[in-house]
Write a structure and sequence with these properties.
Layout: E1 3-5, H1 12-15, H2 27-30, H3 42-45, E2 51-54, H4 66-73, E3 78-81, H5 86-95, E4 99-101, H6 103-108, E5 115-118, E6 123-126, E7 129-132, H7 138-146, H8 149-164
Parallel strand pairs: 1-2, 2-3, 3-4
Antiparallel strand pairs: 5-6, 6-7
């Protein structure tokens, strides 16, 4: 697992340049451009299970869904940040991308530290330190497990229709 570290105010244009907004809409089209202006190594280096640690206001900027879609498609396990933009937070829920707000964990991280996240328990271990964060609501975890809001809603509707018969 690689830990990708970024600072404060990482906006959606830094995560996915706005010049591609109307030409890239699928995950396959978005992936090569993820963080290209901020970290040119990211798109080629990110692997499933990697984590992003970031500062305050991660995801500020426009309301485009491409950054969240791209990070989820790249297999990013979670973004752990000091705080998130509300618009990006919502877009990430829609895509099933896990976001964890835990400023203490971000501040404690040093290159080379092992990071273990137990989202269901509200725990994150950074090196030898353990931090807690509010456990995620069961609905958010269910949306994540389903792969995003749309698959979650479809499955829930199928289940309801099946039980109402």
């Amino acid at each position: 697992m690689t830990i990708w570290c970024y600072g404060d105010d990482i906006n959606t244009d830094m995560m996915f340049p706005g010049k591609y907004t109307y030409t890239c809409s699928t995950a396959e089209e978005i992936l090569p451009h993820l963080l290209e202006d901020l970290d040119p190594e990211f798109a080629d280096g990110v692997k499933p299970g990697d984590l992003i640690l970031a500062g305050r206001n991660f995801g500020c900027g426009s309301s485009r869904e491409q950054p969240a879609l791209g990070l989820k498609a790249a297999g990013v396990e979670a973004v752990v940040a000091k705080s998130f933009s509300r618009i990006f937070y919502r877009a990430s829920i829609n895509q099933g991308l896990l976001l964890v707000e835990c400023p203490q964990a971000v501040e404690a991280y040093r290159p080379g530290d092992e990071v273990r996240l137990e989202a269901e328990k509200g725990l994150i271990n950074v090196g030898a330190q353990q931090f807690t964060f509010p456990a995620l609501p069961t609905e958010i975890l269910a949306i994540r497990q389903a792969g995003g809001l749309l698959p979650y809603a479809r499955a829930k509707l199928r289940k309801e229709r099946g039980s109402n018969g």
